[in-house]
Write a structure and sequence with these properties.
Helices cover 66% and strands 0% of the residues. The chain is mainly alpha-helical. The longest helix is centred in the N-terminal third of the chain and has 26 residues.
C-alpha cells in the first residue's frame, strides 16, 4: 500500500494492511476447514477460489466493517507488483480476477448499498448481473457445509 502514501494517511494504510492480513488468515482457515475437517461446500471452483469465497462469506457475515475488510483486500489483490511473474502451477486466480470476484460478492450481498462499486467502475455492470446469485450461492453452500459438519461432530 506504499504507493498510496499520497492518497491515504498512515493510519488508513495500517488499517488496510490489517484488513489484508485478516482476509489472508480467513482464506487459510477456509483451506483448513476443507482439508483437515473435510468440509466440502456445494459450490464450484478450485480450492483457492473456494477459500476466497469462505473468507468473503465469513468476514461479511461475522465482522464489523466486514465489507471494508473485503474491499481493502480486493484492492490489494489488484496491486500485483510490476514484473511479478505468477508460477504456471499457482492455483490462485490472478489478482485482477480476485479483485473483481471480491467486489462482485460484496455487491451481491447488498446491491443498493454497494451500487457505488459500479458507479466508480470497480465492478463491470455486465458482471454485476450475477453477483447477487453468486453471493447467495456462496452463503448458502458454506452455511450448509458448516452446519452439516458441525452437527455431525455434536452428535
Amino acid at each position: 500500500f506504499k504507493q498510496f502514501a499520497n492518497t491515504f494517511d498512515s493510519v488508513e494504510i495500517n488499517n488496510k494492511i490489517k484488513s489484508v492480513m485478516l482476509f489472508a488468515f480467513t482464506h487459510e482457515l477456509g483451506h483448513a476447514l476443507m482439508g483437515t475437517n473435510g468440509i466440502k461446500p456445494n459450490d464450484s471452483g478450485n480450492s483457492e477460489l473456494l477459500a476466497d469465497k469462505f473468507a468473503t462469506y465469513f468476514i461479511l457475515n461475522n465482522l464489523d466493517q466486514g465489507d471494508k475488510i473485503v474491499l481493502d483486500s480486493a484492492l490489494y489483490m489488484l496491486m500485483q507488483p510490476p514484473g511479478r511473474v505468477t508460477p504456471l502451477n499457482d492455483k490462485h486466480p490472478m489478482g485482477s480476477d480476485r479483485f473483481i470476484n471480491l467486489n462482485c460478492w460484496v455487491y451481491g450481498k447488498d446491491p443498493v448499498k454497494y451500487q457505488y462499486l459500479i458507479d466508480q467502475n470497480l465492478l463491470n455492470k455486465d458482471r454485476s448481473t450475477t453477483c447477487q446469485q453468486e453471493y447467495t450461492q456462496i452463503k448458502d453452500s458454506w452455511e450448509e457445509a458448516l452446519k452439516s459438519r458441525f452437527k455431525q461432530t455434536a452428535a
